[in-house]
Write a structure and sequence with these properties.
Elements (H helix, E strand, L loop, with lengths): L8 H6 L3 H17 L5 H31 L9 H10 L1 H17 L15
Helix pairs in contact: 2-3, 2-4, 3-4, 3-5
Length: about 120
């Protein structure tokens, strides 16, 4: 019984693995540090969003990435941490794109205006 790994408390609590969250926080922190003009609160929020994005998106992305790497017969091994880091690195961009898409979907498409019939064509 002593050689069992410790239980993943975060996975039991909210359904995300600690390794995904930690690697996502690291990726978000790197993004916050290399981006010019970020304040410290923006850097910390980048790390938090990176951790959340990696925590919830890594399990969904892993089958896609494994299939993609299998196309070249690349040995995948345990790449979950690397995928989490990459998702954490682009987490703010992904969330910003999703928010823009949701706003566009909420507001609907602009109304269609047919061309005028009397307009001359070149």
């Amino acid at each position: 019984m002593a050689d069992l790994p410790p239980p993943d408390f975060l996975h039991q609590l909210v359904g995300v693995k600690v390794v995904n969250v930690v690697s996502g926080v690291a990726g978000g922190l790197v993004r916050g540090l290399i981006a010019k003009g970020f304040s410290w609160p923006q850097r910390l929020s980048s790390a938090m969003v990176g951790g959340l994005t990696a925590g919830y998106a890594t399990p969904a992305a892993m089958p896609i990435i494994r299939k993609w790497l299998d196309l070249w017969s690349y040995p995948t091994g345990d790449i979950e941490g690397s995928v989490g880091f990459a998702l954490g690195l682009v987490g703010m961009t992904i969330c910003d794109a999703l928010i823009r898409w949701a706003r566009r979907w909420r507001d609907g498409a602009p109304p269609f205006t047919p061309p005028r019939s009397g307009a001359s064509s070149p």
